[in-house]
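To the structural biology subgroup,

Please find below the input and predicted structure for Cytochrome B5-like protein isoform X2, which we are adding to the shared reference set this quarter. The sequence is reproduced verbatim from the submission form. If anyone notices a discrepancy with their own records, reply to this email rather than editing the shared folder directly, so we keep one authoritative version.
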Amino acid sequence: MVLLVALALLLGLFLAVLLFNPRHRKSGHEGKAQTSLNNDKTSKSYSKTEVSLHNKRTDCWIIIKKKVYDVTSYVEEHPGGDAILAHAGDDSTEGFFGTFIPSFLACTWINHVV
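Predicted structure (tokenized):
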């Protein structure tokens, strides 16, 4: 009986965390991302100058590997806080992937998987 009560409490706690944790709630950027998936991305290109104009919390674009992303709706949820704004309107590739990744991967790579 005690085991059943303990399991019920753990399950309740787990569900409460899922319900009240902001990372698990639906947010505006998910719907926006889905909408942008349906658009033809080859129809419009942006210059770095044009992207640089979108450098505010309320209008935030970033470049990752030569692709432009509108992350305005994600700024408030970014796990690094305002760190995302450091590269607003600029190339965020290094900040996104980190500086150590390519060199670390190069010196630790063994071979391909089959």
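Summary notes: The domain at 45-109 is CATH 3.10.120.10 (Flavocytochrome B2; Chain A, domain 1). The chain has a mean pLDDT of 73.

Regards,
Lab coordination
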